[in-house]
Design a protein that fits this description.
This protein is mainly alpha-helical. The protein contains 12 helices and 3 strands; from the N terminus they run H-H-H-H-H-E-E-E-H-H-H-H-H-H-H. It has helices at about 1-10, 15-35, 60-70, 75-90, 95-100, 125-135, 155-170, 180-190, 195-205, 210-215, 220-230, 230-235, and strands at about 105, 110-115, 120-125. Helix 4 (about 75-90) runs antiparallel to helix 6 (about 125-135) and helix 4 crosses helix 8 (about 180-190).
């Protein structure tokens, strides 16, 4: 551990987040070795402090362009429905591409998805997303929601390629046009519009609240807006 810190102080070695990923594996091995009596006492390994960055998200104007775009063919309609789903529900791209029709409940406005570790969870969707999903599901008879022409599973690589082309077409700049960006955009707007972080954790399928907090590392103006709305002093002053 001291060697890792030394390398980083010299500007060498991996980023803290990468080192911590390796440390998780080492700690798991050390714990197993201690349980099997292969070592006397577990070795204590401390995490490196990770840099906390404000995650870039799509602006309201950029989201409006995505929503208002009129697709011209089947491929574009599939892309529109998938992007809408990511912005509406915050699903991981792997969860969206694996979604099957029998897991879509249009009556209850819910989806059943399999997240990391094959953990099943129920995710809500909006009325607008239900309309879009309903129209798309009528267009094919395959079990996979976002199927290819022959009914196979749309690959993440091809979906990302189409998504980036779409972003260029709409002139979306200043933010990475990716599925992760859409997930972040959903999360931060969920909180901005009054949602709480505990429900958001369940929707996103995070195992810890800390991960969810990273997703909603709000900008200063967001914090000020919330503060002005809930401050008892500001509320009473406005009544004068």
């Amino acid at each position: 551990m001291e060697r890792i810190v030394q390398l980083r102080s010299e500007g060498r070695g991996n980023k803290a987040v990468s080192v911590n990923t390796y440390l998780r594996c080492v700690k798991a091995f050390v714990k197993w070795a201690a349980e099997e009596k292969l070592i006397g006492e577990p070795v204590k390994l401390n995490w490196l402090k990770e840099e906390q960055r404000v995650l870039a998200t799509l602006s309201q104007e950029q989201v409006r362009r995505l929503v208002k775009w009129k697709p011209r063919n089947e491929g574009e309609k599939r892309l529109q429905c998938m992007i809408g789903l990511l912005l509406d529900t915050g699903l991981r791209i792997s969860e969206a591409l694996s979604l099957t029709k029998d897991r879509v409940n249009l009556d209850n406005l819910t989806l059943i998805v399999y997240g990391k570790g094959q953990k099943e969870r129920v995710v809500p969707m909006s009325y607008e997303m239900r309309r879009l999903m309903y129209r798309w599901l009528l267009r094919h008879d395959f079990p996979v929601v976002f199927a290819t022409r022959d009914g196979g599973k749309w690959s993440q690589r091809n979906a990302l390629r189409d998504c980036k082309k779409f972003g260029t077409l709409l002139g979306i700049t200043g933010v990475r046009m990716s599925f992760h960006t859409m997930r972040h955009t959903f999360a931060i707007n969920y909180i901005r519009n009054g949602g709480d972080v505990f429900r958001l954790q369940r929707i996103l399928g995070h195992s810890t609240l800390e991960m969810t907090r990273r997703y909603v590392n709000l900008q200063t103006e967001d914090l000020q807006a919330v503060h002005n709305r809930f401050s008892p002093f500001a509320q009473q002053s406005s009544l004068r």
